[in-house]
Amino acid sequence: MKILLTGATGYIGKRLLLELIRTGHEVICCVRDKNRFNPPDSLKGKIEVFEIDFLQAKEEVNLPSGIDGAYYLMHSMSSATDYDNLELTIAKNFRRIVHRSDIKHVVYLSGIVNEDTLSKHLSSRKAVEEELSQGSYHLTTLRAGIIIGSGSASFEIIRDLVEKLPIMVTPKWLNTKCQPIGIKDVIDMLSLTMMNSSMYDQNFDIGGPDVLTYKEMLQGYAKIRKLKRSIYTIPVMTPRLSSYWLYFVTSTSYKLATALVSSMKIEVICRDQRINDILQVQPKSYAEALRKTFMKIEDHEIVSSWKDSLVSGTFTHSLSDFMKVPSFGCLKDARSMKVNNKQQSLDKIWHIGGDRGWYHMTWLWKFRGFIDKIFGGVGLRRGRTHPDMLATGDAVDFWRVLLADRKQSRLLLFAEMKLPGEAWLEFRIEGDTLYQTATFRPRGILGRLYWYAVYPMHGLVFQGMIRALAK
Fold first, then answer.
1. Dihedral, CA of residue 188, residue 190, residue 192 and residue 196, to nearest 10
2. Rounded CA gap, 386 and 109, in Å?
3. Taking the mean position of all CA atoms in its chain, how far away is CA 430?
4. pTM of this prediction?
5. If you write DSSP's letter for every residue of 385-453 in order, what string do you get?
6. CA-to-CA distance for 427 and 353, rounded, in angstroms?
7. Lowest pLDDT segment from 142-146, 171-175, 442-446
8. β-pairing, 399-405 with 410-415?
9. What is the rounded CA–CA span in Å between residue 174 and residue 46?
10. What is the distance between the alpha carbons of residues 14 and 8, in angstroms, rounded to a whole number?
């Protein structure tokens, strides 16, 4: 079959793409920015890339012909405070454009919405489903709660909390019940649903066999990791305080934390699980999903991470707008040094950030990340998805990868930290010389004052870093 995959650069989309190719489908990957879509070389000959921004889609846009079905995996949560309006606009544009195509079936991954009172996040998901249901195609909606998998936002939050806090004083919503499901089961269900006529024009709740409170999920994680954790819930923590609690302890952004907190007060439990019999899929337990996730992490097999989504930071533009580092009106710190071994230096550059750190005065980078968190930035807690692989669009601490080209020996990063301007950090090896350049485009007088205030630290940090990378 010929399948349209929207959200192909997202956490679910990247994993679903592999499954669709494995099962023999021809896939058209719908992306907003081709520059940040980097499928494995083994897939490039089996897919077609179609660039379209459904938020800004024009009337005359037409999809490629001959498409049988489409996956709707587009979400805007945490990208803006009015994400519900953005999501509805995207759904309307999608329905309008699909109406002029050959698409017969659309599969939408949504959230469980069985309560009478819903959060803004879940209400938005339901509104999108209602909009998509008005299309000229068959719609199937799979509604999931908490998804457990390497790199998922839910798992990363659980991991951050349990690994970092031996004692937790938590908000009362930790007693809310939910029904988690493993990422592999979600991908299997999405794959088996496409063009399955028994699933047409219906919605299904998908979840694992366990109904747990969020507190029990934290305790379950601690048990598998053999960690002793004490958790106390208090009724006086407001939603705002709860959001700050998640934001400062975990790697999540504040906007995402706010959206999640509002939803965590709502029970997300499946009405029934008849879909398991229809698709012949028996989801794994929460403990089994955790064990499988740990195996993937230990083997460095994290296919995708929520952190690599552009909305995990503050970057809202097309990457191509920043690929060329500007020079006019910019301030630079440019250094060069002979390398002892080019391949070893490249390896060091490709391992930069995350657990490896920044090779010199990493404590100062951590302090800068802490300051960034205080002012509402992403901080250093995002780390990186893979310890030694980088691709355009990846997150590396408070940087975004704009270009990662080992053949040309060049890595270009763009800052997502809170700054009075825009910043780039470039590493480039030509011949036997490593060039390291920090570029800052200040925004007004405040930006220039900031640059000169931190400039003395550049001599310590950047000189030490290039020395460590070159030797």
1. 170
2. 26
3. 33
4. 0.78
5. SSSS---TT-EETTEEEEEEETTTTEEEEEE-S--SEEEEEEEEEETTEEEEEEEEEE-HHHHHHHHHH
6. 13
7. 171-175
8. antiparallel
9. 44
10. 6
